[in-house]
């Protein structure tokens, strides 16, 4: 077969784009080379429907070992007793979880998407909002913090089957114990989608959902710095507290119901090449090197937030405990869309984001979300955050001045040379 130079040229260009730009999308990161290597191996050829030791195909003796290692390592990272490493993505993990524990029409209570929540937590444009009956809590207008009183009131009044904690644009920690307390009053499950803060939870830098939430899901490619994918985890509750039944009406262990909801419930063959990448990344999470990395992510985010605030930018909730911040640009008279598009021209990549109580549409938005996991992987420290904020500010304050944008783009390229990305790839 002739080498497809068209596609490989584009892959090469994407690597250059990643190398030359400042990557501030809060949900992105750069995997280690060995993680990336694993995802491009012969494992992509293997069908392995089922689970280690109980597959529907022959020839699974090698992938069984790989998948078991991924399971054992992630259980060790989070000190939990159950892991399913097969979900192809975070959304797939969440879909499987909901399938396992809910019936169509059941009420679910999550953080509103426009307040920092996630599509799979009940948004009307997502399966979770179509199949189930979504209810939402918000953040408080004055503080930008979760409105726990509202959450408790809605929980008591509506009695949802499930309360969801977790967000994609919230820079503060969650009070899992408080949520569990009200859930216990109404016999509801509590699920934490820790996709964003997972790396901090792994190292005890943010509070752990595992003691308080029946279920925890995550993506593996954000602060966990693995390949793109998802996981479902559980600390205990194997006993199936509400006596959920399978299709045949049998009460099963919770772990069993979750496994069945992933395969055959929502997925076919697992991506064993990605699972190998996950296993490697989970091994990396256990190292001291990762502790140093994720501690630096938190320091960098705090340094960046301070630097933005010193320049008069409005950070929702007044700062950050994790890797991201949400900036309301209304006092600067710039929309999120315009900011994203203009910064893109200068090779500074981030995303427009609705801010709480936004008066603009989700396609325009009043804010931007900024995250530091990727630049920290590139080796940046607190002092570099000040530089990045200065570059962003220069673009935003000269938003229609093409000359300034071009000058910043050149400065970005020169700046990024100090922080090599995958030098082994030439
Ligand atoms: N798209 C992810 C994010 O950017 O937060 C969430 O799925």
Topology:
Elements: H1 5-20, E1 22-23, H2 33-39, E2 50-51, E3 54-55, H3 61-78, E4 82-84, H4 90-101, E5 107-111, H5 127-131, E6 133-137, H6 148-158, E7 162-165, H7 176-186, E8 189-193, H8 198-202, E9 215-219, E10 230-234, H9 254-266, H10 272-285, H11 288-310, E11 314-315, E12 324-328, H12 336-345, E13 348-349, E14 351-353, E15 367-371, H13 373-377, H14 382-396, H15 402-416
Parallel strand pairs: 1-13, 5-6, 5-7, 7-8, 8-9
Antiparallel strand pairs: 2-3, 4-10, 9-10, 11-12, 12-15, 14-15
The protein binds D-serine.
Brief synopsis:
This protein is an alpha/beta fold. The chain is built from 15 helices and 15 strands.
CATH class of the largest domain: Alpha Beta
Order of helix and strand elements from N to C terminus: HEHEEHEHEHEHEHEHEEHHHEEHEEEHHH
Characterize the quaternary organization of these chains. Answer: single chain
CATH superfamily annotation of the largest domain: Type I PLP-dependent aspartate aminotransferase-like (Major domain)
Specify the helix fraction band. Answer: 40-55%
Round the Cα radius of gyration to an integer and report it.
22 Å
Hetero compounds: D-serine
Which strand order do you get reading across the main beta sheet?
4-10-9-8-7-5-6
Per the CATH scheme, the topology name of the largest domain is Aspartate Aminotransferase, domain 2
Number of domains: 2
Distance between the termini: 25 Å
Backbone structural class: alpha/beta
Outline the biggest β-sheet: 7 strands, mixed
Mean pLDDT: 97
């Amino acid at each position: 077969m002739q080498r497809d130079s068209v596609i490989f040229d584009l892959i090469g260009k994407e690597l250059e784009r990643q190398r030359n730009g400042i990557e501030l999308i809060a949900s992105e990161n750069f995997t280690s080379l060995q993680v990336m290597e694993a995802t491009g191996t012969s494992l992509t050829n293997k069908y392995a429907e089922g689970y280690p030791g109980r597959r529907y195909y022959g020839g699974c003796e090698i992938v069984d070992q790989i998948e078991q290692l991924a399971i054992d390592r992630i259980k060790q990272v989070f000190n939990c007793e159950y892991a399913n490493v097969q979900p192809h993505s975070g959304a797939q993990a969440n879909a499987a979880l909901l399938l396992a524990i809910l019936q169509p029409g059941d009420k679910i209570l999550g953080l509103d998407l426009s307040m920092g929540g996630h599509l799979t937590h009940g948004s009307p444009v997502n399966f979770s909002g179509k199949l189930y009956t979504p209810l939402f809590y918000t953040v408080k207008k004055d503080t930008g913090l979760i409105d726990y009183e509202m959450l408790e009131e809605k929980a008591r009044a509506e009695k949802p089957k499930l309360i969801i904690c977790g967000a994609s644009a919230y820079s503060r920690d969650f009070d899992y114990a408080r949520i569990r307390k009200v859930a216990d009053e109404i016999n509801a499950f509590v699920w934490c989608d820790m996709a964003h803060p997972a790396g901090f939870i792994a190292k005890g830098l943010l509070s752990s959902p595992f003691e308080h939430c029946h279920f925890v899901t995550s993506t593996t490619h954000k602060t966990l710095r693995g390949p793109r994918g998802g996981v479902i985890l559980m600390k205990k509750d194997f006993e199936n507290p509400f006596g959920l039944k399978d299709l045949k009406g049998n009460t099963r262990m919770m772990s069993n119901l979750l496994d069945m909801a992933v395969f055959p419930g929502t997925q076919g063959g697992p991506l064993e090449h990605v699972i190998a990448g996950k296993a490697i990344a989970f091994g990396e999470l256990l190292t001291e090197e990762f502790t140093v990395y994720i501690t630096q992510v938190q320091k960098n985010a705090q340094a960046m937030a301070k630097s933005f605030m010193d320049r008069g930018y409005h950070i929702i909730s007044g700062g950050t405990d994790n890797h991201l911040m949400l900036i309301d640009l209304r006092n600067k008279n710039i929309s999120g869309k315009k900011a994203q598009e203009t910064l893109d021209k200068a090779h500074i990549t981030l995303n427009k984001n609705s801010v709480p109580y936004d008066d603009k549409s989700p396609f325009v938005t009043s804010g931007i979300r900024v995250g530091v996991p990727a630049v920290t992987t590139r080796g940046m420290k607190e002092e570099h955050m000040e530089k990045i904020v200065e570059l962003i500010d220069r673009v935003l304050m000269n938003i229609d001045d093409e000359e300034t944008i071009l000058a910043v783009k050149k400065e970005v390229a020169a700046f990024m040379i100090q922080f090599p990305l995958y030098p082994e790839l030439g």
